[in-house]
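Sample A.
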Amino acid sequence: MKWLLKIVDAVRPTFEEGGKLHVFNPVFGALEHFLFAPGTRTLGAPHIRDPIDLKRFMSMAIISVVPCVFAALYFFGLRIIPMIIVSYACGLAVEAAFAIVRKEGINEGFFVTGILFPMILPPGIPLWMVGVGVAFGVLIGKELFGGTGRNIFNPALVGRCFLALAYPAKMSASWIEAGGGLTGRLLEYATAPAATDAVTVATPLSEAKGGQMCSIWHLLFGNVSGSAGETSAILIILGGVFLLFTRVANWRTVAGILLSFVILTGALIQGGAVSYSIDGLVSPIIWHVFAGGLLFGAFFMATDPVTSPTSNIGKWIYGIIIGSTTVLIRNFTGYVEGVTFAILLGNIVAPILDEAVIAIRIRRLRSEG
């Protein structure tokens, strides 16, 4: 890579202050830092301890979601590739525009957002909606707050929430039946079915609302309809464990979400507030853990280091809020899924949780002193 570094060093003066292309210095900086570790420290979250930590975080997060990307390609076809391309192109365009105006560098964090965003969308969604959604998420969810490290909302979830509220009909008609067999839909460029056929590709959670629950084996292996990256519970858990093992994600947040979800769902079932029927020996509680976007949200979205609490106690409470809210939305509202709204609610209270934890600790230290 030394030859590439020499080329970068040779063209750098062109993009620095006084160079002919100095206006595009943020874009050049983003490409340089993507190839080589930056030699400077970050001023805001996510903080780093050495020049490679931020790049390590980005790399580990992208590697962890790769199994879900491959699963999306297998179950839903080659259309996933242009969805990812459009997500990166439109999102980076917004990032680059703000970086140029502010004369700042493009933060590497978007390379994670750019690949996560298509994974939480219906696989048959029109490509223009992918572009509009990611642009809205980056603009409203991050850049208007001052950019990476200052945003309180996860930009990918903001974009997903915007599409769900602005285009509900198109979102609900963009589900694709998962492929099977040896090649799945790998050789297809699948599109969403006509509105009259939408019932034939209902998601597991929408079927559960109607009293039907598919086999848990379908949820584990992924041959069910749903958002592009959330169908295979096994692959999501595999990527999530990798994040926990590399300490990119914090286990307390994940544990808080899953434990609160299981406990509250069990309490509602025991109290008779909700009832489910499922064939076999699998508990409906476990079925609901594997269904929908709960696992994907718990491992990949809620653990975002910028929009989640920094204190350990705050992470527990944050996770409990998300898990409990997801249960309430799924069972007592018209929405079949509630993870997106639950995590955004958690993003709102995350700074308050840290402030409360710090205030309590300071008060305790003063009283002991």
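Sample B, a different protein:
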Amino acid sequence: MKKCLLLLAVLLCALSAAFAGPGGQSGDTIAIGAVFPLSGGVAFYGTESRDGALLAIDEINAAGGLLGKKLTLIAEDDEGDAAKSLNAFTKLVSRDKVSFVLGSSTSGATMAMTIPAQQAKVILISPSATNTEVTRAGDYIFRACFIDPFQGVVGADFAYDTLNARRAAVLYDAGADYNTGLAEAFKTQFAKNGGEVVADEAYQSGDVDFNAQVTRIRAANPDVVYLPNYYNDVALQAKQLRAQGINVPLLGGDGWDSLIDNAGDEALNGFWSAGFAADTTDPRGQAFVRAYQTKFNKPASQFAALGYDTMMLVINGIKAAGTFDTAAVKDAMAKLNGPYVTGNIRFDANRDPIKGAAILEIVRKDGKLVNAYKTTVNPR
């Protein structure tokens, strides 16, 4: 991040000089930029989001294009690195003259681009950067994913409305922003709904023995236990909760991804929030899954769905504005409110999406644990 800050002052000047209104146009084609980790440790996130965006572009072009223009995607690889993200963004804006950039997949790489994007009046929208600070750089910055604490709100609503829970226990890592953010949001929303948090238990990163906290949770007699932690901790916690006879539903956030590969039957009656479920029953989501499988010969992930929606949000903003001018488009995007593959999306004052989250249930199917789509919880 320090390298990014050293480059930032110079690059801001270069971007301001290079950018001259809506660009990326060549005859009947307009280019959309993308900065994603296409290689490296988080390449799965980036390649999936890029492919989702490509599918959206194919569909728009097949339907006649956008405002008389065919769309093309210029994708750059940041390898999940903030400095490389900034360099890629600078290339897209100054050399390729794009006015719209998708990316990046991670919060750090995305935040390296937000101030330059705002300065250059380039619309930047991330499919999966969840840090709350991402959109704070200005009104040209958007995201398609929900922010981390919102999962706590969704979890509380699901617990209260669907599981009919009225007494909740919470066990979370007190030293991790993700865990504490979800925990605080859950507790606030559950109480707002009319429920009671009867046990509020914390632990420290690296702990493996949770029996003291579990004993207090058992004494509180909750209807549900909220575990907003990563899968490795949850696997241990679920085992120790069940061992002490706590058989109520367990609930968590997207940190549970991979839990089924690391836990046994103690994870059953467990539910977690995700950005998208490939086995969704929503017709729009099902159509996307089929189209993605046909085009890329692979199943659609939540990152692919978010990449598709990210592209469609830009496209719908341009349609609503009736122009490629970014000042008009960002205002139009801020007013969008409609159905997308990952749910109904509208934006709040910070251009963070107000949208539902898929709830997945851990079930046993054909002899193994799987994540099955349960429902979508939309914000109240």
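Observation for Sample B: Residues 337 and 346 are 4 Å apart (CA to CA).
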